[in-house]
Amino acid sequence: MKRLLLATTIAAVTALTTIACGGTAEQTAAPSTSTASDTSSDDAASDDAATDAPGPTGIPDGMGSGAADGVFPRTVGHFGGSTEIPAEPKKIVVIATGQLDAALTLGVVPTGVAYGDGAALVPDYISFSFPQYADRMSQFVDVGNRQEVDIEAIAAIEPDLILANKAGSEDIYSTLSTIAPTVLTEGTGVNWKQDFLLLADALGRTEQAQSFVNTFASDAAALGDSVSGGGTPTVSLVRFTADRARVFGIPSFAGYIAWDAGLARPESQQFDKTSQDFSEEEIQLANADWVFVSSQDAGADSSAASYTTNPLWTGMSAATENHIVRVDDDPWYLNAGPTAATIVLDGLKSALQS
Asked: What is the pTM of this model?
């Protein structure tokens, strides 16, 4: 499916019931309409394609610093206001897992880290992706749950930069700002490119991050080109938690990545919100040529166990053709960062190019 047609379909389809999950990659939110602040004729996506994207492709106008990499002091406009960062930060606190992912992708190891509900301080995909930082990650200072951080623990670090998401930390921004310069990214998965670039600006590494985003978009487009012969296969995005089942739309973290690759989505998932619950009677909504499914809880009493043993599930064309792919919940559906995005893209490549 062509990107323009796909974007037109998004606008044409009535919005369906969605679920809000504050501060995570799967939070329900309408996509932002920002534009890139650092693009060139060599960018992987054209201006027209960026306009039609389900999420922002760059730092919003009026935000960021405009300063070159490594130049300090810099004043960074962000989703909490404007913050001066006097020197290259050395002791950094990150409150969202996607920000931990982003910092490590840029070669910056934070000092203090928060964790998500029911999640480890360092998710497995982070440990696996950055073995070179294993010793330093074992020394992370735990600053509490990202929905209720430990202000005293953050202050004790004496950080010179705090990174947080507006979606989860807007109410404590003023408190955090009394401790150290604080920069708020927007949060939610569909904003991952914008948030990565804004975080990189605060670290003095905008050009490095822009190069990553450009390469990612080029790699995604190459995947779409490689599987388009004979018709682009449809991909379905499904997540099970303990008591819920959801399909994910185009303006979601994994949905945006599939859009970058020009991959088609089943009609049932062409809605303009992040996700939609579906019942066991509605299992067909999860079907496509390929189904990428994660389970946060796969216990005997979980929704995953119930749904995936239902004859409606085992009878789906994707199931009978062995095109159901189990994926890691954390990078695909729970957190949004550049390394998580690479894992999702690699998972799509592995299945579709096999």
From this structure: 0.86
**Residue type at 280 in one-letter notation:** E
Percent of the chain surpassing pLDDT 70: 85
The residues pairing with 93 across neighbouring beta strands, listed in sequence order, are 112, 162
Q: Kindly state the average pLDDT of the residues 76-104.
A: 97
Mind listing the pLDDT tens digit for each residue in 121-149?
999 999 999 999 999 999 999 999 998 99
- CA 267 – CA 313 distance, rounded (Å): 18
Cα gap 242→119, rounded to integer Å: 14
Report the pLDDT averaged over residues 154-182: 97
Q: What is the 3-state secondary structure (H, E, C) of the chain?
A: CCHHHHHHHHHHCCCCCCCCCCCCCCCCCCCCCCCCCCCCCCCCCCHHHHHHCCCCCCCCCCCECCCCCCCCCEEEEECCEEEEECCCCCCEEECCHHHHHHHHHCCCCCCEEEECCCCCCCCHHHHHHCHHHHHHHCCCEEEEECCEECHHHHHHHCCCEEEEEHHHHHHHHHHHHHHCCEEEECCCHHHHHHHHHHHHHHCCCHHHHHHHHHHHHHHHHHHHHHHCCCCCCEEEEEEECCCCEEEECCCCHHHHHHHHCCCECCHHHCCCCCEEECCHHHHHHHCCCEEEEEECCCCCCCHHHHHHCCHHHHCCHHHHCCCEEECCHHHHHHCCCHHHHHHHHHHHHHHHCC
Antiparallel, parallel or unpaired: β 245-248 and 235-240? antiparallel
